[in-house]
Amino acid sequence: MDASVSRDPQDGRPLYLAPIAETWVGLDGPALRVSSLEQAERLFPLRRIGRVHTNARVEWETEALMACAERGIPVVFVDEDGQVLARLLGRPGERDELRNRLIAFLLRPESLGMLRHWMQTSRHRAARWAAIKLRLGTQLADTSAIRQRIDAQTAHVAGEQVAAQTRQWLRGLAYAWMEEHLRDLGLGRSTELGQAGRPPLAADLTDIFYWYLEPARQGWLKRRYLAAKRKGQPLMTPSRQDVVRLFESRALKVAARGREISGSLHRWLIHET
């Protein structure tokens, strides 16, 4: 039975259930109980679970599903190819509140301009945070100047091609996380707002979100460079899987930052509506 806990969009981490043999999920007090003919029962505390990905071979007890719903833990049902069949998003609350606030706000004729200004301000704040973490100083006035400095530093320790490729891969992972987070908040592609594509929330919020990942990327590339130099070995080109592991290793911090950004947007919408 493949039952593992990995990256998390909430306070805990996702639980992946992809068994080969028939498997059952029940509730055992404050934990999900996963049973299989192949392995002994395993308990997964609900407080440590951020979402559940489960395939069609898993049989769920209603009590276990309701426990997830009560705690706002999304349960995603997928087919053999990993395509989503259904989602259990849990009880309404902040998820619907954010969506409803945004819909009401967008009825205002000046809304897109106001939202664009909020995005720019938030992006600049995130870029300055990255500059401080990377000890670039506070004299850099705009995001483009900060971007140029970071690109120059990463190119020095990794080469321009690797610097650009790792940035692209990491941003792709950040975009996928943000898109999934927005879907949990009722703002996914399949919604009316998502299909309209205005505003492009996932892309705009990822532009903010990604700045918080830059110090980790540069630190990782620098450590690889120094290790190879110390050992007198050639610097190996990192793979996409290496970048995935970097992203996964900071799962809790990534999730906290992502929720902080959507929470900040929510608070701003409350103020404006």
General description of the model:
The protein is an alpha/beta fold. It has 2 domains: 3-88, Ribosomal Protein L15, Chain: K, domain 2; 94-272, no CATH class. 55% of the residues lie in helices and 16% in strands. It contains 10 helices and 9 strands. The protein has helices spanning 62-70, 94-105, 111-133, 143-158, 160-184, 192-196, 201-209, 214-231, 240-249, 251-272; strands at residues 3-5, 13-17, 23-28, 31-36, 42-45, 49-55, 58-60, 75-78, 84-88. The strands form 2 sheets. The protein has a 5-stranded mixed beta sheet with strand order 1-2-6-8-9. A hairpin with a 7-residue loop joins β1 (3-5) and β2. α4 (143-158) crosses α5, α5 (160-184) packs across α7 (201-209) and α5 (160-184) crosses α9 (240-249). The termini are far apart. The model is unreliable at 4-11 (pLDDT under 50).
List the helices and strands and how they pair.
Blueprint: E1 3-5, E2 13-17, E3 23-28, E4 31-36, E5 42-45, E6 49-55, E7 58-60, H1 62-70, E8 75-78, E9 84-88, H2 94-105, H3 111-133, H4 143-158, H5 160-184, H6 192-196, H7 201-209, H8 214-231, H9 240-249, H10 251-272
Parallel strand pairs: 2-6, 3-7, 6-8
Antiparallel strand pairs: 1-2, 3-4, 4-5, 8-9
Helix pairs in contact: 2-10, 3-4, 3-7, 4-5, 4-8, 5-7, 5-9
Uncertain parts: 4-11
Shape: flat
Q: Which class do the helix and strand fractions yield?
A: alpha/beta
Q: Helix proportion of residues, in percent?
A: 40-55%
Number of strands: 9
Tell me the fraction of residues in β-strands, as a range.
Answer: 15-25%
Major β-sheet strand ordering: 1-2-6-8-9
Q: How confident overall, as mean pLDDT? A: 84
The first-to-last residue Cα distance is 49 Å
Tally the helices: 10
Give the biggest sheet: 5 strands, mixed
- Tally of discrete structural domains: 2
Radius of gyration: 21 Å
Q: N-to-C SSE series?
A: EEEEEEEHEEHHHHHHHHH
